[in-house]
Predict the 3D structure of the following.
Amino acid sequence: MPLQLKVYVPPHPLIQHWLAVARDAATPSVLFRSAMTELGRWLTYEAVREWLPTYDAVVESPLGQSPATFVNAEVPIAVIPILRAGLGLLEGAQTLLPLASVYHLGLVRDESTLQPLCYLNKLPEQFAPGTRVLITDPMLATGGSMVAAMSELTQRGVDPSLTRIVSVVAAPPALQKLNNAFPGLIVYTAAIDEVVNNQGFIVPGLGDAGDRTFGT
Ligand code: PRP
């Protein structure tokens, strides 16, 4: 079935470079964290196009009047890192969205069933109408974790069409599952890898992004 969900893989050399660093099994944790920060920054830069609200104005430059466009700081922006691995992308995203509220959501997959379990939920009871939401999680494997996250968000008033997912490696099972549940979603990812193995890891992927980010 064709996807209604939109998936963008920005052809940007900095995204490709930091993806290569992150994929390399020889990359130590300290550098893997830098790669996650940079991927968070550049994928967020791409993801906020046509999403970040702006308003038009006129400013006085030292030499005259100019039409101008500002980011509208009155429209609420929420960044949702999916713990643990999504924290690695958060720092880069925050450099571009310094006024965003950050709501942590802790999900971990059961190693045998691959079902996500929620162990921390700092989401507000209700999001203000029109809130722009950006979710960070480097891996979309079976898609169970992201569908669970989206379900929590939509129950609290989040509009999927105002939501952007920033991922690093996405696999077709996750994209299909997200498409079935939330067809209006838009995903930004550094790569799409075809295979999810029977332990739930994307191949070739990055390995366990949470463990590699935190050196555990
Ligand atoms: C990883 C990853 C995603 C999830 C993806 O997290 O960061 O959240 O698995 O898998 P799915 O698409 O099959 O649900 P993990 O459960 O390993 O927790 P961690 O981030 O704490 O390492």
